[in-house]
Amino acid sequence: MKVLIMGIDGYIGWPLALRELAKGNKVSGIDNFITRKRVREVGSQSALPIPTFKKRIDYVKDFGLGEINFHRGDASDPDFLRDVIIEEKPDAVVHLAEQRSAPYSMIGLKQASDTLKQNMLSTLNLIYAVKENVPKCHILKLGTMGEYGTPNIDIPEGFFEIEYNGRKDTLPFPKQAGSWYHWSKVHDSNNLMFASKVWKIRITDVMQGVVYGTRTKEITSPHLFTRFDIDEVWGTALNRFCTQATIGLPITPYGKGGQTRGFLSLEDSITCLDIALSHPPNDGEYRVFNQFDEHYSVNELAALTKEQYEKGFSKKAEILHVPNPRLEAEEHYYNPVHEKLKNLGYHRSKELREELLVILNDLSHHKSRINKVKDVIMPKTKWTESPFNL
Amino acid sequence: MKVLIMGIDGYIGWPLALRELAKGNKVSGIDNFITRKRVREVGSQSALPIPTFKKRIDYVKDFGLGEINFHRGDASDPDFLRDVIIEEKPDAVVHLAEQRSAPYSMIGLKQASDTLKQNMLSTLNLIYAVKENVPKCHILKLGTMGEYGTPNIDIPEGFFEIEYNGRKDTLPFPKQAGSWYHWSKVHDSNNLMFASKVWKIRITDVMQGVVYGTRTKEITSPHLFTRFDIDEVWGTALNRFCTQATIGLPITPYGKGGQTRGFLSLEDSITCLDIALSHPPNDGEYRVFNQFDEHYSVNELAALTKEQYEKGFSKKAEILHVPNPRLEAEEHYYNPVHEKLKNLGYHRSKELREELLVILNDLSHHKSRINKVKDVIMPKTKWTESPFNL
């Protein structure tokens, strides 16, 4: 199978490339390295050092994993993307090339515009490039469980049958996202659903939970590390908590900490994406996978991090609640379904409690690197501010 | 009340300006005249001649309606829009400044991108300009009944309470739009709903049905005419049918003709918008109005046009079904609610059957003008084509 990975230099893109190479698939990729640039812009860096992409390609060869055909460019440029699709003729395109930070999208109008515009256009360009050049190609698109928000009813996988005023229909589940980033993913989902209907494209839209971890079975050496962001803009809550524990700062949940989300390990996320690639949808099928294993509240994440840090490093960790810079329900019902991947043979292989020790151990070797950027861990980006001009 | 009308040169914008002036409100407006340009680009023109905007301002003075403070510019330019908002300090902004043609959005990738991007950015810019400069200002935004698509259940006004797996919640009604244009309006609705939540902005999101007519009570002279588009890209089905009858061409419904939509007259549309302006939402309220009076199938529109033309002009009209260039259900359930405007005192004043005679009469004075553009009435833009490059 020929797989084109858009955003191959990213947190998910890189380990997915390693997995697909290890499986003997032909891997090509695109990236414009904008995440590297934007992380620098907020004064941060990946807590784990990562090589340049040129070196990544060399290491992959050194480790006997094979070759990556790389194209540097921006997916929001339609001609660039079309030319790559024509050259690579992929069987599947994994679209990970979007701005992926909720806080970034809430910094101000410029960031909101860029997120909404560039995420939407990259997906639209992909739709047109695929339909016209490789109409049987499978588009595997990363969305987020955050598209659903936190409704007071169960969350199905994309669609649900409802009865209303005595009549029935199967409809897309209503989305209630909580940032411009999350809304950009909702808009993409809607656009993909429509594209599949009009042009019979095969699409898997992955509502992915929060991914944690530094390792997959292919990441056997620091040379193969994927990026690991820890700042308020680019790092997840769990990444920040692990980082805070590592350098002796208090672990800081936002608000009451009852905010509950779905989670899965990096290893399992890559396995899920690989399963989706191995089981493409039918012609014209638009399918939605809810991709996560378990849900945790922010308080549970903080407590688990504290517990595992204290166990693994025999030092104390402290938890300190700070005001929530986001606008979100801090106590709510949360019950999303996640069956479709299991029905295709997915089994969970990692558990958060154990994986925390692996993350904390990897971070423990980079304390001085982390200490350089410790001032960007605490929240500055406030949802209710988001000014017109910065 | 100070009302800023974005898209004041358009089909709805112009008669709304006349109405607000007639009511003694202070009216300002913006426009970039892009609809005039894009209509020329497809080789068409308004069937009724309309003056330049400069002349429109003069005529308004001549007819004793007062003054319009006009700003030429593009709402997708954030600084332009903010400067106008700061200068005008409006109590309400009516946002009509979006690309409003479904076929235009389906011509090809460029038009799809422009529609999705510019519609979204104009609304986003407005949100930020309002929240920062006139936080109590009422945003009255034009969406479309087409956002809902044609579900097999009743369509409420924006939100509905549902029971699912034994639990209840009030959720946004799931949208299933049928073109990039319609999706751009869905994306706007989602963005507005979120903005209202985060920044407590007052928003009315109007799901407007198809508007018909050439007149309002203020349009007493051809000098005050609003535009009336008749080509396959910019004209509605009813406008095309009236035009075809007027110049002796067959009336051409697309497909089986069972496609059913909500309709209201231009006079009543302006009345609805004015009622919404006079009854603004509360702080932080995002409300949705379904704005239409009656629903008709395409076949009913064709039959009514034929009947009224034959009655009014004592000549025969012919109906000829042509292949449907769109992707849409041609036979379906359709039952949208429309109560909120009635609860605010709205009463219908016009009826399609009578109004058809007014339209046909206005068109009858411009046959030679219409004959010049008769080649752009029949559909060329096909939903399933929409190429990457034209």
Description:
- In chain A, strands 3-2-1-4-5-8-11 form a seven-stranded parallel sheet, with helices on both faces. Chain A has a three-stranded mixed sheet with strand order 9-10-12.
- With 390 residues, chain A is an alpha/beta fold.
- In chain A, 58% of the residues are buried.
- Chain A has one domain (2-376): Rossmann fold (3-Layer(aba) Sandwich).
- The first copy, chain A, is globular, with a radius of gyration of 20 Å.
- In chain A, 38% of the residues lie in helices and 17% in strands.
- In chain A, α1 crosses α9 (266-278) and α8 (237-246) packs parallel to α10.
- The first copy, chain A, is built from 13 helices and twelve strands.
- At the A-B interface, α6, β6, β7 and α7 of A face α6, β6, β7 and α7 of B.
CA(first)-CA(last) distance of chain A: 46 Å
Give the tally of structural domains of chain A: 1
In spatial order, strands of the major sheet of chain A run 3-2-1-4-5-8-11
Sequence of secondary-structure elements of chain A: EHEHHEHEHHEEEHEEHEHEEHHHH
- Biggest interface, residues from each chain: A-B, 51 and 51 residues
The CATH topology of chain A is given as Rossmann fold
> Quick check: average pLDDT of chain A?
97
